[in-house]
Specification:
About 85% of the residues lie in helices and about 0% in strands. It is mostly helical. It has one domain (about 5-415).
Length: about 475
């Protein structure tokens, strides 16, 4: 195993492992908060983050990605970026502070105004740490990044739950997120050896902007793709419905939003180091696809088959309306398995515009279909459009990969064949276990029966994976334990 491959494996191990702990912590926190706070409070917070995430795209203008992709004059580029990025953060805070009344008017909800102004501090805090964070990623020091993010997640949980128990409502979420951002930024600076020397290079700034502009445009289109559904729901159906949708979306896309994104953070610098070797890029992409499928396929099918039991047991009866939305959105998360690391590959090959055009097409689909579908089918109509757009996105990704690195569609499907077959066998075990528990042992709807079904699913999936592809399972075990 070469050095780069070892570094990549360790990076995946640390970021995905930390992400698993972080997501488990986040899930536990969400369950506690969901039992304390109402759907309308979650909806208000989700509404605020539509605006926050929109402006968040401007926080670096792609300069941090350009720094990771760059091969020379790294220190000069880092100092140049450090002049620009924090300045952008301050400008974004001022823009948000001034425009919040108009945002509240657009959504017919003035409660969001003070929430947005408080959350605007995220821009200033976060931008201060982007350059050292990018350098840590470039140097493949992902353990430091992972540990920093884990500390931030723990900080959010402690502060948010403490404030929620104190009756602070939406401010418990706001306070938790601000504290998380502050702790994360401090930890990044603690672990980074780099310190600015306050030198600005206009030539390097132009070079980085040339690369970063398409990263930014792609991020802008990606933001619209990920938030237009929430904008329409918040505008047309209200914050309570948005709270239901936001939870359903998070459950349905849990793997893509957390684990796959962590893999992208690792694989972009790794792809960049071998950007001229198409065969190596293809092998890496297919390996990642199989690894993500190994985790995502069984979890996706389990959530789909057990959606009612999981929601009622974990979140409680007041969140029962998320179940039919999960039934649709879960497939959008499944389709996005195929897009994992594709954006990183496009950027490593110097084609960030591909991501921009792909996301722009999905935005166009949303603009055309979401309004009429939401009027006809309500929140489920929005979920249908999101899932349809995700499916189209997958086929376009496949076309571009074939054009860029000669990737055949059959290669992709063959690579996930074993996890898919093992998942089908596991699904049969889940259905059989549920039937037996409900009709023979008469334990339907109990926490014990759900636990038995989940353990049966885990045991059967591991059994069939070892049976069908023992070598791959051992490889995953080695990567997680010995990388």
């Amino acid at each position: 195993m070469d050095t780069l491959k070892q570094q990549t494996a360790r990076g995946v191990k640390w970021l995905v492992g930390a992400s698993f702990i972080e997501k488990t912590l986040s899930l536990g926190t969400t369950v506690i908060l969901a039992r304390i706070l109402s759907p309308s409070i979650f909806g208000l917070f989700a509404l605020a983050f539509v605006a926050i995430n929109g402006l968040n795209l401007f926080k670096s203008m792609g300069f941090d990605s350009a720094l990771i992709q760059r091969k020379d004059d790294i220190d000069k580029a880092a100092n140049t970026a450090f002049f620009i990025i924090p300045l952008l953060g301050c400008i974004l805070f001022l823009i948000l502070y001034i425009t919040t009344p108009f945002i509240g008017k657009f959504f017919n909800n003035h409660d969001v105004v003070p929430v947005l102004r408080a959350l605007g501090l995220i821009f200033i805090i976060n931008c201060i740490g982007l350059v050292p964070k990018a350098l840590l990623k470039k140097e493949m020091r992902f353990a430091k990044v992972a540990f920093s993010e884990l500390i931030g997640a723990l900080g959010f949980s402690v502060v948010a739950i403490f404030l929620a128990l104190g009756g602070y409502g939406v401010w418990s979420l706001v306070g938790g997120y601000l504290f998380k951002t502050l702790i994360l930024t401090c930890a990044i600076w603690y672990f980074s050896k780099w310190r600015p020397n306050w030198r600005f290079n206009i030539k390097i700034a132009r070079q980085m902007f040339h690369f970063g502009k398409f990263v930014f445009l792609g991020s802008l289109a990606f933001f619209l793709r990920m938030n237009l559904d929430k904008i329409f729901i918040g505008r047309l159906l209200g914050v309570a419905v948005l709270g239901i949708y936001a939870l359903a979306f998070n459950i349905s896309n849990i793997l893509v939003e957390y684990f796959s994104n962590k893999i992208d953070q690792v694989i972009f610098p790794a792809y960049s180091k071998k950007q001229n070797d198409d065969n190596a890029l293809k092998r890496s992409y297919l390996d990642i696809l199989k690894t993500v499928s190994f985790i995502a396929l069984p979890l996706t099918f389990c959530v789909y088959l057990l959606r009612t039991e999981l929601v009622q047991t974990i979140y409680g009866h007041k969140w029962i309306d998320v179940i039919p939305v999960i039934q649709i959105l879960i497939w959008s998360g499944l389709f996005r398995i195929f897009t994992t690391s594709a954006g990183a590959l496009f950027m490593a090959k110097g084609k960030p515009r591909y991501g921009f055009w792909l996301s722009s097409l999905q935005v166009l689909i949303f603009l055309i279909l979401i309004a009429p579908f939401s009027k006809l089918f309500g929140i489920k109509g929005v979920a249908i459009v999101v899932t349809l757009a995700a499916l189209i996105h997958v086929f376009l990704i496949m076309f571009l990969l074939k054009r860029l690195i000669s990737m055949r569609i059959t290669e992709m499907f063959l690579r996930i064949k074993v996890p898919f077959l093992a998942t089908l066998m596991m699904s049969f075990v889940v259905l059989l276990a549920r039937f037996l528990l409900a009709n023979i042992f008469l334990t339907k709807g109990t926490n014990t029966s759900l636990l038995i079904i989940l353990l049966s699913a885990l045991a059967s999936y591991i059994f069939f994976m070892v049976k069908f592809d023992r070598q791959f399972v051992m490889k995953i075990k080695t990567m997680l334990i010995g990388a």
